[in-house]
Amino acid sequence: MFPLRVTEELDDWPEKSVRRRLWVKFSEARELCWHPWMKEALDVFASKVSKRKEGTQIYHFKENTVVCCS
Protein backbone atom coordinates (compact mmCIF):
# COMPACT_ATOMS: atom_id res chain seq x y z
CA MET A 1 0.00 0.00 0.00
CA PHE A 2 1.50 3.31 -1.11
CA PRO A 3 0.22 6.90 -1.14
CA LEU A 4 0.37 8.20 -4.70
CA ARG A 5 -0.08 11.60 -6.23
CA VAL A 6 -2.54 11.18 -9.08
CA THR A 7 -2.11 13.70 -11.87
CA GLU A 8 -4.10 11.87 -14.51
CA GLU A 9 -6.65 9.07 -14.49
CA LEU A 10 -6.44 6.78 -17.52
CA ASP A 11 -9.15 4.46 -18.83
CA ASP A 12 -6.51 1.83 -19.56
CA TRP A 13 -3.41 0.96 -17.51
CA PRO A 14 -0.97 -1.98 -17.52
CA GLU A 15 -2.56 -3.93 -14.63
CA LYS A 16 -6.18 -3.27 -15.59
CA SER A 17 -6.81 -6.96 -16.27
CA VAL A 18 -5.80 -7.96 -12.72
CA ARG A 19 -6.77 -4.91 -10.61
CA ARG A 20 -9.82 -2.74 -10.26
CA ARG A 21 -9.78 0.95 -9.39
CA LEU A 22 -12.30 2.48 -7.04
CA TRP A 23 -12.46 6.03 -5.65
CA VAL A 24 -13.76 6.03 -2.08
CA LYS A 25 -13.85 8.30 0.98
CA PHE A 26 -11.27 7.72 3.71
CA SER A 27 -13.86 6.10 5.97
CA GLU A 28 -14.85 3.64 3.22
CA ALA A 29 -11.22 2.89 2.38
CA ARG A 30 -10.62 1.99 6.01
CA GLU A 31 -13.50 -0.49 5.94
CA LEU A 32 -12.11 -2.06 2.74
CA CYS A 33 -8.69 -2.73 4.29
CA TRP A 34 -8.03 -6.43 4.78
CA HIS A 35 -5.35 -6.21 7.46
CA PRO A 36 -5.13 -4.18 10.70
CA TRP A 37 -1.76 -2.73 9.61
CA MET A 38 -3.44 -1.31 6.50
CA LYS A 39 -6.08 0.46 8.62
CA GLU A 40 -3.36 1.85 10.87
CA ALA A 41 -1.32 3.07 7.88
CA LEU A 42 -4.40 4.77 6.41
CA ASP A 43 -5.16 6.44 9.77
CA VAL A 44 -1.59 7.78 10.00
CA PHE A 45 -1.71 9.02 6.40
CA ALA A 46 -5.10 10.71 6.92
CA SER A 47 -3.78 12.43 10.06
CA LYS A 48 -0.73 13.76 8.22
CA VAL A 49 -2.82 14.98 5.29
CA SER A 50 -5.22 16.81 7.64
CA LYS A 51 -2.30 18.60 9.29
CA ARG A 52 -0.78 19.58 5.94
CA LYS A 53 -4.07 20.96 4.62
CA GLU A 54 -3.88 23.60 7.36
CA GLY A 55 -0.53 24.82 6.04
CA THR A 56 0.94 24.37 2.60
CA GLN A 57 -1.31 22.03 0.68
CA ILE A 58 0.84 19.26 -0.73
CA TYR A 59 -1.93 16.76 -1.40
CA HIS A 60 -4.94 17.42 -3.60
CA PHE A 61 -7.91 15.13 -3.11
CA LYS A 62 -10.89 14.79 -5.38
CA GLU A 63 -13.78 15.35 -2.95
CA ASN A 64 -11.78 13.93 0.00
CA THR A 65 -11.29 10.56 -1.69
CA VAL A 66 -8.51 8.04 -2.05
CA VAL A 67 -8.00 5.43 -4.71
CA CYS A 68 -8.33 1.82 -3.70
CA CYS A 69 -6.91 -0.88 -5.94
CA SER A 70 -7.41 -4.57 -5.39
UniProtKB/TrEMBL annotation:
GO terms for molecular function: hydrolase activity; metal ion binding. Keywords: Hydrolase, Metal-binding. The lineage of its organism: Eukaryota, Viridiplantae, Streptophyta, Embryophyta, Tracheophyta. The keyword Zinc-finger does not apply. Signal peptide: none annotated. The keyword Metal-binding applies. This is Diphosphoinositol polyphosphate phosphohydrolase.
